[in-house]
Amino acid sequence: MTAPADGAARDLYHPLILEHCRRPRNFRVPAGARRIRADNPLCGDQIDVYLDIAGGTVRDIAFDGVGCAVARASASLMTEAIMGRGLPYGRRLLDAFRRLVESPEGAPDDPDLGELAVFADLRHFPARRQCALLAWNALDEAVREPGADTA
Length: 151
Fold this sequence. Notes:
Blueprint: H1 6-11, H2 15-22, E1 34-40, E2 45-54, E3 57-66, H3 69-82, H4 87-102, H5 129-144
Antiparallel strand pairs: 1-2, 2-3
């Protein structure tokens, strides 16, 4: 698949993605939270996701690390979407986000994704999908471990 014309290339850096890259939300290391690291050895991105889960609810979620604009914005938007929500919701959102960036062009977007739908343009850029999924992969590892619901 070839890269789209210049106009579509600019869509990769939607203003919302740039805003969350420049001013990421929940970019911090919370005390007492569990850390899960995700690495992308192809580009050098490394994101640590911090989770505090109690009674099946994400009480706190944050991230830090180094990454490109797409990786940072995706992590920032993920933390906003998951904070204070139950793990079943987080799992559904994770699956919906993964489908969004991995599905072929023209596939319908899940309306529950809200602002995360800005990453639909990654369908034009297969090499950048892993950037967007980096923090989500850490979340996936954390919520699929035995006992995650009651940690």
